[in-house]
Structure to design on (472 residues):
């Protein structure tokens, strides 16, 4: 069983290249703080899918604003798999 | 704070990229001269971005059919077929499409966009999964968003990635619909359909192929990529449009599944849109008949495609991955794309400027689409304009 902390740590690693040196916290907003555009969001999802070996449905995007949201959804999807 | 705050960044980006110069929405076709020429900014211009693949938008028989339908049936149906009824020509067009594809039934929509919106929002439901190629058209994404199925993207044209995602679904793969395009609209590349059809069979999934850019373009009879790849029986739903090779506007879905007839009752983009106008239906029928007469138009189209692709490649330009009636010239940056696009326009050549996110992989491209109606000399003018603009 993967823990939320494990997922969060790996999510930080994935986000590092998108953050361009910005400090990341659970509350970091992917759009407002990191300024990700739609193409970068898709790249981010692909990387997370590879890392965690899951498919992330696009339907979750409207409910993902922060790093915490993303890590929680990934953990849920891993538990479902 | 206002409703319009979110458009501020768009305005900033537009200003930075275009300044006060010409923007794509600002190009006015002042007078159409033929399927391949128009007056733009007072200048005779070769149209090399129309999607009018077979040149049928100016076919005399199609024009006469549209003219006759206007006179006999009026300018519009003024309502949905659910409310206002089906014109005989709607039913005839659906029958002719079913015959052409050798399928049980067809639904005609008022636009290609609405065909994808309608089918993808209605057929896959709450407990189903739609697997879409990452480079699929916006209408496919929007159809999924309007529906309630789970939406999963797979890497563009990657059979291995699709396989992996189907495997993750386990038993749910039997409720999955794979969605691909025959020819992708931006780069002009084809789906690896034989391999995708094999996966579809292995996992017991469903397969939808949008043949918008391959109808009349691929296949011995012009039925598209599924015909060319020899896998038509594996395709559950074929989506198509009248607005490209058939030279008018509208869309359709054909299928052997008897439930397609029931989709009419549940499909909001079908029920709540006025049905195609009589002139549109008449010209689509005439164009379909022209497409069915033989391969001559397709042969001319492919001769022209090979000429343009080969000559632009000889110039050393970076192009899409394969010869196609869609010839994508890849630009190093949006700024370069705008500059070359304007340079072409000043030299009397119109192509499509495609910026991210519409262009794949965050890139920028100048999208040419060739027509059977282009002459070899016109193609040379397009090539020369690219050469002169680049230097």
């Amino acid at each position: 069983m993967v823990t939320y902390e494990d997922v969060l740590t790996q999510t930080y690693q994935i986000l590092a290249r998108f953050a361009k040196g910005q400090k990341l916290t659970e509350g970091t907003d992917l759009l407002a703080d990191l300024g990700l555009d739609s193409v970068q969001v898709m790249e981010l999802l692909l990387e997370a899918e590879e890392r965690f070996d899951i498919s992330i449905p696009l339907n979750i995007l409207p409910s993902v604003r922060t790093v915490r949201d993303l890590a929680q959804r990934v953990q849920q999807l891993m538990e479902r798999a | 704070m206002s409703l319009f705050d979110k458009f501020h960044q768009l305005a900033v980006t537009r200003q930075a990229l275009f300044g006060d110069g010409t923007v794509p929405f600002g190009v006015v076709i002042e007078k159409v001269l033929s399927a391949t020429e128009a007056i733009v900014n007072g200048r005779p211009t070769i149209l090399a971005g129309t999607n009018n693949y077979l040149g049928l938008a100016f076919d005399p028989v199609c024009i006469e059919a549209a003219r006759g339908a206007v006179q006999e049936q009026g300018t519009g149906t003024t309502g949905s077929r659910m409310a206002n009824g089906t014109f005989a020509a709607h039913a005839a067009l659906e029958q002719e499409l079913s015959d052409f594809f050798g399928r049980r039934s067809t639904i005609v929509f008022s636009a290609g966009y609405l065909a994808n919106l309608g089918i993808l929002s209605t057929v896959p439901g709450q407990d189903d999964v739609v697997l879409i190629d990452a480079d699929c058209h916006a209408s496919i994404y929007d159809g999924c968003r309007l529906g309630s199925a789970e939406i999963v993207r797979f890497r563009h044209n990657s059979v291995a990635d699709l396989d992996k995602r189907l495997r993750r679904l386990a038993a749910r793969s039997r409720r999955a619909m794979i969605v691909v395009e025959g020819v992708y609209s931006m780069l002009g590349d084809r789906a690896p359909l034989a391999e995708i059809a094999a996966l579809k069979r292995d996992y017991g999934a469903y397969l939808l192929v949008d043949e918008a850019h391959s109808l009349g373009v691929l296949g011995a009879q012009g039925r598209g990529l599924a015909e060319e790849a020899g896998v038509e029986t594996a395709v559950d739903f074929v989506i198509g449009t009248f607005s490209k090779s058939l030279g008018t506007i509208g869309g359709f879905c054909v299928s052997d599944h008897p439930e397609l007839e029931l989709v009419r009752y549940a499909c909001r983009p079908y029920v709540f849109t006025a049905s195609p106008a009589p002139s549109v239906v008449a010209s689509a029928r005439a164009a379909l008949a022209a497409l069915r007469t033989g391969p001559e138009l397709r042969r001319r189209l492919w001769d022209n495609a090979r000429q343009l692709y080969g000559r632009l490649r000889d110039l050393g330009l970076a192009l899409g991955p394969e010869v196609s009636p869609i010839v994508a010239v890849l630009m190093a940056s949006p700024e370069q794309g705008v500059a070359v696009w304007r340079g072409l326009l000043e030299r009397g050549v119109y192509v499509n400027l495609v910026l991210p996110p519409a262009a794949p992989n965050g890139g920028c491209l100048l999208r040419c689409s060739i027509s059977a109606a282009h002459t070899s000399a016109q193609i040379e003018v397009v090539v020369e304009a690219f050469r002169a603009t680049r230097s």
The CA atoms of residues 14 and 47 of chain A lie 7 Å apart. The mean pLDDT of chain A is 93. The interface with chain B takes residues 37-40, 42, 45-46, 53-59, 81 of chain A (CB under 8 Å). DSSP finds three helices and no strands in chain A.
